Hints:
- This protein has about 100 residues and is mainly beta.
- The chain has one domain (about 5-85): Jelly Rolls (Sandwich), CATH 2.60.120.10.
- Helices cover about 0% and strands about 55% of the residues.
- It contains no helices and 10 strands.
- The chain has strands at about 5, 10-15, 25, 30-35, 40-45, 45-50, 55-60, 65-70, 75-85, 90-95.
- A hairpin with a 2-residue loop joins strand 5 (about 40-45) and strand 6.
- The two termini are about 25 Å apart.
Amino acid sequence: xxxxxxxxxxKRIVVYPGKRLSLQKHQRREEHWFFLSGRxxxxxxxxxxxxxxxxxxxxxxxxxxRIENGGEENVILIEIQTGxxxxxxxxxxxxxxxxxx
Length: 101
């Protein structure tokens, strides 16, 4: 965690090669992702977006989203959350490779 303030939260996230984060959405926050390394395939609602180092993407409140790393290098990104609540109970998971659904 890089920052945890009442108005925003900032995280550094690593997605290892061959892994993906849960397919999820949030009702009370939006996210902005800035990619520092690797190549990712991002699902945002019905859209598939290929991203690499230097790219960024907005995830609107309520959008279904996921990051996948199909490459051989770690995907590292900075996630900036804004909204009125940042608790883990605002994560609605639909699919999860780590059994958290």
